[in-house]
Design goal:
alpha/beta, Aspartate Aminotransferase, domain 1, Aspartate Aminotransferase, domain 2, 2 domains, seven-stranded mixed beta sheet, binds 3-[O-phosphonopyridoxyl]--amino-benzoic acid
Length: 459
């Protein structure tokens, strides 16, 4: 590639002329121009001007093994030379998806042993929705097709993903959602717990909202409940430990399938391979993508529990569903090598026993006390910082979401990439972060908070 022949300004102009970015106000972007990231190494990304930025978001929640892994490039290159593509339709297969499926069955919870591939988390959730509805139809209950989800959930950007998700601005642009999907309250104690309500009790109450929705629809009409174990794009909302076991108990009571969307949490982020293990639950489907390849190739895997797969296999006939790139040989080769790296370097254990607890402690000791911070929380290497005007009353700066953007911009200017969503700052770093990297991040975030506080006080 010869992008080096272009100046930053030229690249920005061409970008503005031809490239429609995801989730972007295009007019605004054209006025300021894109930041162009040109390379990356380990935990750092570098822009076209050579600025080094510590990547607190692992790309977009995905680069778990960090950047610059030659082994992954070599795995892709070798596979491309041997067999760049063949499909897995029409009773064909290629070796890498076969071996990856075996590996995923080994890593997944015991009752999960089948895998359906796509290229993105959105596609995998489409598959999951079609599959659970198909399951109930095969079981002779086609009317059992409603799905319960949560407000502010993110399940992707296709029509099914948007409909499953609970993001209101996205729904407004949908022009008609997939029918029979309802959204209940999220387990977000910081804003929704009642005065004096314990974390435990709040978790049980948030789960009760699922039961209420089942009863309102009639259990005979409800196919499944879907949720992110920890809501990611919605603001790293970590449920109380009481929540998921109670949701599972309710789903079992009413014979409702449990669908877990682990697109962000899968492959180590919470200190276990899957957050299902962190929260001690046994979902019927687990949607995964992102860190499956550490983002080096687009690939998603819907992990299917034995209950659903048994019916699909034994009663199903042909399931009219699949993608050209289902089980793409190159993406699967990269996934196999990526999982090998995570295992070889013990990254999941490291998050559980070392960097995860250290991250939690560092956020508490170094960030939580800041005047702009209402709460910090984390699980594994996934964290949130609530930005407030008043710590005691939890009052926010207006307009909503404006203060977090000020913090984010100062953070990026000081070499720290993190995300602002609403009034919450989000961190989801590569799992290769060490205690030293966490210290470096806290230094930069504390600096950004100081500068943002000075700006915001002038308002
Ligand atoms: N489920 C979850 C839980 C996700 O976080 C998807 C599904 C969809 O995956 P694909 O691969 O189709 O994008 C996601 C994606 C953000 C952000 O702003 C988060 C995602 C994607 C883009 C932006 O935090 N998550």
């Amino acid at each position: 590639m010869t992008y080096q022949n272009y100046s930053l300004k030229q690249l920005q102009q061409i970008d503005a002329a031809h490239h429609l970015h995801p989730f972007t106000d295009h007019k605004e972007l054209r006025e300021i121009g894109s930041r162009i990231i040109t390379r990356a190494e380990g935990p750092f990304i570098y822009d076209s001007e050579g600025t080094e930025i510590l990547d607190g978001m692992a790309g977009l929640w995905c680069v778990n093994v960090g950047y610059g892994r030659d082994e992954l490039a070599d795995a892709a290159s070798a596979q491309m030379k041997e067999l760049p593509y063949y499909n897995s339709f029409f009773k064909c297969s290629t070796p890498t998806p076969v071996l990856l499926s075996k590996k995923l069955a080994e890593l997944a919870p015991k009752h999960v042993s089948q895998v359906f591939y796509g290229s993105s988390g959105s596609e995998a959730n489409d598959t999951a929705l079609r599959l659970v509805r198909h399951y109930w139809a095969l079981e002779g209950k086609p009317e059992k097709n409603r799905v319960i989800s949560r407000k502010s959930a993110y399940h992707g950007s296709t029509i099914a993903g948007t409909s499953l998700g609970g993001m209101e601005p996205m729904h407004k642009q949908l022009g008609g959602a997939v029918p029979n999907i309802v959204h209940v309250m999220m387990p977000y104690a910081y804003e929704l717990a009642l005065p004096g309500e314990s974390d435990h009790d709040f978790g049980i109450r948030a789960a009760k909202a699922v039961e209420d929705a089942i009863l309102e629809a009639g259990a005979e009409n409800v196919a499944a409940f879907i949720g992110e174990p920890v809501m990611g794009a919605g603001g790293v909302k970590i449920p109380p430990m009481s929540y998921w076991p109670e949701v599972q108990r309710i789903c079992r009571k009413y014979d409702v399938l449990l669908m877990l969307d682990e697109v962000i949490t899968g492959y180590g982020r919470t200190g276990e391979w899957f957050a299902a293990q962190t929260f001690g639950i046994e979902p019927d489907t687990i949607t995964t993508a992102k860190a499956l390849t550490s983002g080096y190739q687009p690939l998603s895997a819907l992990l299917v529990g034995d209950r659903v797969s048994k019916t699909l296999v034994e009663k199903g006939g042909e399931f009219y569903h699949g993608y050209t790139y289902s089980g793409h040989p190159v993406a699967c080769a990269v996934a196999l090598k990526n999982l090998e790296i995570i295992e070889r370097e013990g990254l999941v254990d490291r998050v559980k026993n070392d960097t995860g607890p250290y991250f939690a402690q560092a956020l508490q000791e170094r960030i939580a006390g800041h005047s702009l911070v209402g709460e910090v929380r984390s699980i594994g290497l996934m964290g949130a910082i609530e930005i407030v005007k008043d710590k005691a009353t939890k009052e926010r700066y207006l307009p909503s979401g404006s203060a977090a953007v000020v913090v984010r911009d100062h953070a990026i200017a000081h070499g720290m990439m993190l995300r602002a969503t609403g009034d919450t700052m989000i961190l989801s770093p590569p799992l290769i972060w060490t205690r030293e990297t966490i210290d470096m991040a806290c230094d930069r975030i504390a600096k950004a908070l100081d500068l943002a506080a000075a700006d915001l006080r002038k308002r």
